[in-house]
């Protein structure tokens, strides 16, 4: 399995938004693709502590409000030229609201941006997985990155490789432009760890904004886990215990 490390840039603090300035468009350098990575809005399963993985689940009332808030924010910033999304409904619905507000004609689905398949853990509650699926539980929390999760699940390396490859392909089409990518907590975690070389991404919150600059020479995060636009609508503070509980 090929390594997922794509940059030697120093890591940024994953627990704090690096930039919260939402006013005034800033031009993207001609040799850089600016990708605004967005985690989908909150779902009923997020709220109840149930594992989604690659299964479908619906945005709840809070999730729709978060999608509206992030749409309002992105519409005030530098206009994106395209929006891409995971094919899963929770991401697609978030992306469609953003697209409408930003006057983008379509949401481009990218299957490789979907959430990690976590095997026999999918559909269970986090509180019960250690007892009901001990092998899958150990595989999920293992530091062995090439270990696949029993029940048809992906390894972390597999998730990482498809996520990074998808971003590379998107970036190659949008040099000098800003584009939006709506995806999932596990995917964002994999991308962050690949770019920074860190062993943790901290909490990847629902409807957070994470800005990544991609060029042929380097990848660098300009902001991470920015939820300043959610101050009025609120969000799940726990993030399901940081890295361990994302989907």
From TrEMBL:
Protein residues bound to substrate: 39-46, 90
GO CC annotation, single: cytosol
Pfam family, one: His_Phos_1
Active site: residue positions: 40, 115
Gene3D superfamilies given in the database record: Phosphoglycerate mutase-like
Highest taxon of source: Eukaryota
SMART domains xref list: PGAM
GO MF annotation list: phosphatase activity
Signal peptide residue numbers: none
Family: Belongs to the phosphoglycerate mutase family.
Protein name: Histidine phosphatase superfamily
The organism of origin for this protein: Macleaya cordata (Five-seeded plume-poppy)
């Amino acid at each position: 399995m090929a390594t997922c490390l794509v940059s030697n840039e120093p890591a940024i603090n994953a627990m704090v938004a690096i930039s919260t300035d939402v006013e005034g468009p800033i031009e993207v350098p001609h040799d850089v693709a600016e990708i605004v990575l967005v985690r989908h809005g909150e779902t009923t399963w997020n709220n109840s502590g149930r594992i989604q993985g690659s299964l479908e689940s619906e945005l709840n009332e809070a999730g729709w409000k978060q999608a509206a808030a992030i749409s309002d924010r992105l519409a005030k910033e530098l206009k994106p030229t395209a929006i891409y999304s995971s094919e899963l409904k929770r991401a697609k619905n978030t992306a469609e609201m953003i697209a409408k507000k930003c006057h983008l004609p379509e949401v481009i689905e990218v299957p490789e941006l979907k959430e990690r398949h976590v095997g026999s853990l999918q559909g269970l509650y986090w509180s019960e997985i250690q007892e009901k699926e001990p092998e899958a539980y150990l595989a999920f929390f293992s530091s062995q990155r090439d270990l696949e999760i029993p029940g048809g699940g992906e390894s972390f390396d597999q998730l990482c490789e498809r996520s990074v490859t998808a971003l590379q392909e998107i970036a190659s089409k949008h040099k000098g432009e800003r584009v939006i990518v709506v995806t999932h907590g596990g995917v964002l975690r994999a991308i962050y760890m690949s770019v920074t070389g860190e062993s943790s991404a901290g909490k990847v919150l629902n409807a957070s904004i994470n800005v990544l600059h991609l060029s042929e020479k380097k990848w660098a995060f300009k902001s991470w886990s920015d939820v300043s636009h959610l101050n009025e609508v609120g969000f799940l503070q726990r993030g399901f215990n940081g890295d361990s509980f994302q989907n």
